[in-house]
Structures are given as structure tokens and as C-alpha cells.
Amino acid sequence: MDPEVSLMLHCEPLQALGEHQTHIEISDRFNRQSFPEIEQHIEAVWSDRATQEPWLFNGAKFRLHSAMLSVMENGPMGEQAVQNKGDQLESGDTSSDRLTKDEQSCVLNLQLGLTCYKDYLGTNWSREAANLQSHGRNERADPQAFLAQPLGVGAVMATADGDVVLLRRSQKVAEAAGLLDIPGGHPEPKMVCPEVSEEAICVELLQGKERAVVSEIFSSVCAEISDEVNVPVSSLSKPLFMGIALNHTSAGRPSAEFYVRCTLTSEEVRDFYRRGGPEAHESTDILFLSRAKMLQLSDRSPLWSEMCPSAKGAVLLYQRVMPE
């Protein structure tokens, strides 16, 4: 088992979920917990980084508090939760396994708060992350309670001829420099509240806009692909949710991983990539893996050591869910 990554939850094989099967609850109850010392630390970290990199700017992000897959039975049994927050997944029989597809449908439920990039740098990406997790475990029975936990998104993008896209990250990026990654980024609260500044975005402004938040989570996947790979959004299918992976090099930061089909061939995608896009500076090369090689990848594969945690998590989810 690779210590850099684990799975928070995943869909059943061949049952990746669409946007209409996703529901959220957003509340300030799901924001990061606080105490004076950590706020001082966050401010100090941000001040140091902003001095070294004056182009940095803070931005609001969605904070993942919990995620649950629920089986909705078409009968009097109602809803049966099959996976819950932060549990390490274990194989085993559940009563939902005995239901046929006609008798059940699956729903993803996310509990979201708000956080920001500054809080991420001062918590998940801080030298104090392990201490914060210990404090959260002791004081809140939740090791992530005092961490920013911004929700990321990533895409296993399959070309028309069946290859999966990987990008070689630039040596100039802050995290996972030079490693192989999948296209990805973050859904942006600002896209749901375009009329207000980043600093003014708050949970209250997002409440009542839950469907817009879900739409932003899913649409941000295609937007990130388009920005990083430079393919037209019109060439991409609607994303299908496979699961959530945790990056333990940044204290268990969560990333929702999706499967997206592209109508372009590998050579056509390569051509678009070489023309450069809005985020071309983030990567230096594009690689293509066949579906067979994706399914065979493991921590014993030579390529595995070249992959960043988000890509590893996406591979593990792809292998479990097999969305195509």
C-alpha cells in the first residue's frame, strides 16, 4: 500500500455517478475548527510566503467535511448508507450487494464548508500538519478538524482511441514538481458568487445555491482539462464521479476524481496540447497510457514512482470503478 494516497470512498464497479446523483449540504458547521495559536501560525506562514512570492493571492475554496454514498432503495426500506466519512474502505458483504440495479440507485452526499488557499498553506501544507491532526483527534475526535481540507477535482480523461492522458508537471510548480499528474484543480466558490469579491464570499451567500455548487464541482473538471490540455470543452463528455482520494503528502487533502471521455484521438489531443493553453506553464509534456496499462499499474510498476499522489489516487479509483 502506497503511504502517499488512500481512498476515502469509491463507487461500485461500472456505477460511476453523474451530476444529477450528487447532493450537497453547505454550512459553516463544516468549516475548519480554530484556536488562537493556529490562526497566528497561518498568518505567519502566509506573510512569509507572500514576501517570497508577492504574486500569490488568496482565494476561497470549498472545504470537504464529509462524504457519503447512499443506496436509495425503491421501496419501503428508504435510504441505506454504505460508506461514510473518512473510513478506510474494506471489502466485505453489505446488504446493498443483494439488491439488483432495478431496486436501487446510488447518491453522493457531500457536506461542505468554506476555506481558502491561505488556510491550506498554514494547515495541510504546513510543518504543523501532524500536530494539528493529533490535536483534532484528541479535541474533536476528528484528525482533520483543524485542517483546511480544500476539495480538489481530477480527471481520468480517455481519448477516442482509448488512451488516458497524463501530464508531466513543470519543475516550477509548488507541489509535485516534475511528476506525472492528471488534469485537475479546484471548483471555485467565486463561480457561484460572481457578483462578490473573494474576500466577501461566505457560506450564507452559497446557501440556497446548492445545485449551482454541484454544477460548479462537475463543470470545473472540464474547465481544468480545457485549461491544462487545451482541448475544447465541447469535445468532452459530462464527468462521471468515481470517488474521493486522499493525498497524505498534504495531510489527507481530498480530491474528487472523475472519468471524462474525449471525442478527439490521442494525436489530436497532442496537437491541441502543443499549441498551448491558459495553464500550459503548469506542465512540460503530455503522455498517453492505454486502458490495459492503466488497469495493470501498481506500486510495483516503474511508472508509479513518477506519479504524484493525485494521479495515483485517480488510477486506484479507475481500477476499482472501471467506469467505461
From TrEMBL:
<keyword id="KW-0479">Metal-binding</keyword>
<dbReference type="GO" id="GO:0046872">
    <property type="term" value="F:metal ion binding"/>
</dbReference>
<feature type="domain" description="Nudix hydrolase">
    <location>
        <begin position="148"/>
        <end position="321"/>
    </location>
</feature>
<protein>
    <recommendedName>
        <fullName>Nudix hydrolase domain-containing protein</fullName>
    </recommendedName>
</protein>
<dbReference type="InterPro" id="IPR055295">
    <property type="entry name" value="NUDT22/NUDT9-like"/>
</dbReference>
<keyword id="KW-0378">Hydrolase</keyword>
<dbReference type="InterPro" id="IPR015797">
    <property type="entry name" value="NUDIX_hydrolase-like_dom_sf"/>
</dbReference>
<keyword id="KW-0460">Magnesium</keyword>
<dbReference type="InterPro" id="IPR000086">
    <property type="entry name" value="NUDIX_hydrolase_dom"/>
</dbReference>
<dbReference type="GO" id="GO:0052751">
    <property type="term" value="F:GDP-mannose hydrolase activity"/>
</dbReference>
